[in-house]
Amino acid sequence: MTNQDLLAVAKEFGSPVYVYDAEKIAFQFNRLKNAFSEIKDLRIHYAVKALSNISILKYLNSLGSGMDTVSVQEVKLALKAGVAPKDIIYTPNGVSLEEIEQVVRLGVQINIDNLSILEQFGAKHPEVPVCIRINPHILAGGNSKISVGHVDSKFGISIHQMPLLLRIVENTGMNINGIHMHTGSDILDIEVFLRASEILFDSAKNFKNLEFLDFGSGFKVPYRENDIETDIEELGEKLTERFKNFCKEYGRELTLVFEPGKFLVSEAGKFLAKVNVIKQTTSTVFAGVDTGFNHLIRPMFYGSHHDIKNVSNPEGKFRFYSVVGYICETDTFANNRRIAEITEGDILAFSNAGAYSFSMASNFNSRYRPPEVLWYKGKGHLIRERETFEDLLRHQKVMDFTPKTAKASK
Ligand SMILES: *Cc1c(COP(=O)(O)O)cnc(C)c1O
């Protein structure tokens, strides 16, 4: 999308606004697919939590993607988008047995990540095939806030508990049809990913009826120019060979599953905000925008870097700014950032705003959540309207608790 396209979107739909480039999503999807083209049965399950707009789900499904879900609500969204139950996997953490049973009734593959629920579920429903999430205790991600595979992580069943796991499976007579791992976000080092995969293969040998191996996700995407990213093509080459060998040993062709969120949608998204005020202090120049961590929380929550471009004045002289939000809280998007000269009213574009951006937005400060636009074939299509005052009031009950006596004396 060009600067002109972005300005046109801001003009047509107002600011702030999220815009997603359909072409980029398709590009990433096909890139991953091509990297594993030698795998007979590859399934890519998009991680719905990254960006859960139903039109995005529909679009990804039309490209051939299944869905990876973490709540029964996400399962329902995927079904609503027209995704077949067999193309959905449910990978929750710490949910109730009741919710898991609800998902099973919807015809969706479940993934269990703790022994307590595994035992309860197996005892009650030994006939339902179950995937298990193991924790390989390998820290694939670079940032501990978004890594979920280390030893103290709450995610997955520790591989050290394999003997107990196997006893539960035997005692209940349940059917394990898949093994899953997800070591967290931001995999830089392919060798680390491959090491974790070895542990997955090792665990898989314990089960006779497997249909698929799910390697999760956590592929790193670039956040700045010349940033390192996961070398998907190299990973494709190495893991494909190893996977094929494993299938030979195992004696059956298995399905290889990935569940990328960020990789598919992060770079496709731009978040557009308008500069309300330029405020010079003794130490910096603030550019105050018409948004805050209510709409884009990643910089404050994870310390994530989002490139910021002044699309209204891209050729302007570069100056240093602190870009801050309008929330009554410290909400700094960027400190001391070089940006083309900003004038009040300019539109700034935040990069990497496709994943974990709108989906983590809130109504803090009673602001409306922004609209979402899908840029498809040279045109912006509104896929979510901006909220309105009615949305803020929805579900609230206006009740009068004024004491009767006080009323009487009025
Ligand atoms: C969040 C999540 C993903 C997606 O992770 P990304 O870093 O966005 O690719 C995949 N699988 C599971 C189980 C997840 O919780």
From TrEMBL:
Domain spans labelled Orn/DAP/Arg decarboxylase 2 C-terminal: 18-354
Active site (UniProt): C328
InterPro entries for this protein: Ala_racemase/Decarboxylase_C, DAP_deCOOHase_LysA, De-COase2_C, De-COase2_N, De-COase2_pyr-phos_BS, Orn/DAP/Arg_de-COase, PLP-binding_barrel
Keywords noted in UniProt: Amino-acid biosynthesis, Decarboxylase, Lyase, Lysine biosynthesis, Pyridoxal phosphate
Enzyme class: lyase
Pfam families xref list: Orn_Arg_deC_N, Orn_DAP_Arg_deC
Domain Orn/DAP/Arg decarboxylase 2 N-terminal: 24-266
GO biological process: lysine biosynthetic process via diaminopimelate
Family designation: Belongs to the Orn/Lys/Arg decarboxylase class-II family. LysA subfamily.
PANTHER family cross-referenced by the UniProt entry: DIAMINOPIMELATE DECARBOXYLASE (PTHR43727), GROUP IV DECARBOXYLASE (PTHR43727:SF2)
Self-association state and partner proteins as the record states: Homodimer.
Protein name as catalogued: Diaminopimelate decarboxylase
Organism: Salegentibacter agarivorans
Gene label: lysA
